[in-house]
Design goal:
The protein is an alpha/beta fold and 201 residues long. It is built from seven helices and eight strands. The protein has a single domain, classed as P-loop containing nucleotide triphosphate hydrolases (Rossmann fold, 3-Layer(aba) Sandwich). An eight-stranded mixed beta sheet has the order 3-2-4-5-1-6-7-8, with helices on both faces. Helix 1 runs antiparallel to helix 2. The longest helix has 16 residues. Bound molecules: guanosine-5'-triphosphate and magnesium ion. Magnesium ion binds next to helix 1.
Length: 201
């Protein structure tokens, strides 16, 4: 079964995307497997709304370890299972808390082994340095993914006017990637993401 890793900066909308995309694919509930950086596994059953209440939020680094769901996407006349794995957000700074540092290391390790990278960018916060091509974590993820030819960028939060304006700038700055505008909050742009998953599963 192929694994699709959802990665990006903290607060970019990875967890909300993961849960609303599961709902978009028809799930009313989610069995989420949490894998701590030390390898300890825990599986919990949630309603989607309950999972969003518990696992998403404006607090930076709400997610501190990988959490996976097994989903199905229609391909032709069959449905193919894949693993969608939400991760701890990554950034340039060395974080003060050990749990976050370990979570980020776990994300980077997962990136190396995953089959496909779904890179979420908060388009409302697409900074000039990110767009100008200076070294930063978004560009590192992009270059890594492009080199492996198994990558899409989701320009998220396009329900916000500032984000909508930045989509064209992101597309130009990350011109080798497919950049899909989405709103994880309103499940917008998800049909295109589903088509991409179906094509790579
Ligand atoms: N307006 C808007 N807000 C969003 C969207 N996606 C996420 N958010 C908000 O952004 C905040 C962070 O969302 P999360 O899904 O928890 O972000 P994350 O990337 O998982 O964050 P960490 O786990 O901290 O790395 C929440 O308050 C969400 O409601 C979106 O498409 N539009
Ligand atoms: Mg999260």
């Amino acid at each position: 079964m192929k694994e699709f890793a959802v990665v990006g900066r903290p607060n970019s909308g990875k967890t909300l995307f993961t849960l609303n995309f599961a709902a978009f694919l028809g799930c009313k509930t989610a069995d989420i497997t949490f894998r701590a950086p030390d390898g300890l596994l825990d599986c919990r059953h949630f309603g989607i709304a309950e999972a969003k209440r518990e696992l998403c939020g404006p607090m930076i680094h709400k997610t501190r370890a990988v959490q996976s769901l097994v989903l199905k996407v229609p391909v032709g006349k069959t449905a193919v299972s894949f693993k969608l794995t939400d991760t701890c957000g990554v950034s340039e700074q060395i974080h003060g808390e050990e749990a976050v540092r370990r979570g980020m290391a776990q994300t980077l390790s997962l990136l190396r082994g995953t089959d496909f990278i779904i890179h979420i960018v908060d388009a409302a916060l697409a900074t000039d340095s990110c767009l100008a091509g200076e070294a930063n974590i978004d560009r590192e993820i992009y270059q890594f993914g492009i080199a492996r030819n198994r990558y899409i960028m989701l320009a998220n939060k396009t329900d916000l006017p500032a984000a909508r304006e930045n989509v064209a700038r992101l597309t130009a700055a990350f011109h080798q990637a497919t950049v899909l505008p989405v709103s994880a909050l309103y499940s917008k742009g998800f049909a295109e993401v589903k088509a991409c998953v179906a094509g790579n599963v």
